[in-house]
């Protein structure tokens, strides 16, 4: 099949090549990066997407921030191990490659990489005619970072008496959007540009607030403080993500009234009739990242978080677990 026939079938190779040249990304096959400064270097990788938040971007016709979400979902997973995100690459697939939209996406990805202090080394695009509904698209991100083996944060140092610090999220981040969309657009019949007075913005603007990237803040903290455990609060909310890092003999006790819950979460809870038990298993509820440290580190950690222009809260502590108790208790 010639490229002309391939184009007739819905795949325009020449257009894709022009797009790649226009965005000026380093060739991933020749990009050098140095991890030799680590005594025993360990490579940490992460891959993720942004789920159905893409559908909100399509409804709003706004694609220049979804790339920030894509970077955030990957690099936040890397920094939670105490690793330094080094490189990022992306994958964009669509029914037909819309150059204007693709450039907006890449603009967001570049901005996210800048925030994460990492390098965009390349990506891949694919046209798949009739694969998505309404000329939709999908995204995937891939990141790699490095840490010294002795400095990896794996949660094994967590002990009873450790303090749990929650760093504020910027909003829903990139999780729970299937439920959020159902509540907003199916149950409440909102339009993407419906203005919500309590938010001082439209529902579309609220739902498209980019995921906060915690890399710079965590680098500052890790340079000065000993952290025993980290959790990036993504799908599964506080309960499921925190439970992954707690050693079996301990439990995390979270006090629910110790932080400010942004209006959007209570708005979704009320209008979606979501139970108190389900909310922290779906949404981040205003906490996007969690740190666990010894008590003598607490004041310094909170000070460093505030200096990085982030809100932080002391939301709980680690205690001994009795037989039959869950890894996370919210009281």
Give a verbal description of the structure.
- By secondary structure, this protein is α+β, with helices and mostly antiparallel strands.
- The chain has two domains: 3-151, 60s Ribosomal Protein L30, Chain: A, CATH 3.30.1330; 163-330, Phosphoribosyl-aminoimidazole Synthetase, Chain A, domain 2 (Alpha-Beta Complex), CATH 3.90.650.
- Helices cover 34% and strands 24% of the residues.
- The protein has twelve helices and twelve strands.
- The protein has helices at 3-8, 13-23, 53-60, 66-79, 99-116, 177-187, 203-207, 215-222, 237-243, 263-272, 279-282, 298-307; strands spanning 41-48, 84-94, 119-127, 137-148, 163-168, 195-196, 201-202, 229-232, 250-254, 287-293, 312-320, 328-330.
- Strands 8-10-5-11-9-12 form a six-stranded mixed sheet. A four-stranded mixed sheet has the order 1-4-2-3, with helices on one face.
- β2, α5 (99-116) and β3 form a beta-alpha-beta unit.
- α2 packs parallel to α5 and α4 packs parallel to α5 (99-116).
- The longest helix is centred in the N-terminal third of the chain and has 18 residues, at 99-116.
- The model has no long low-confidence stretch (mean pLDDT 90).
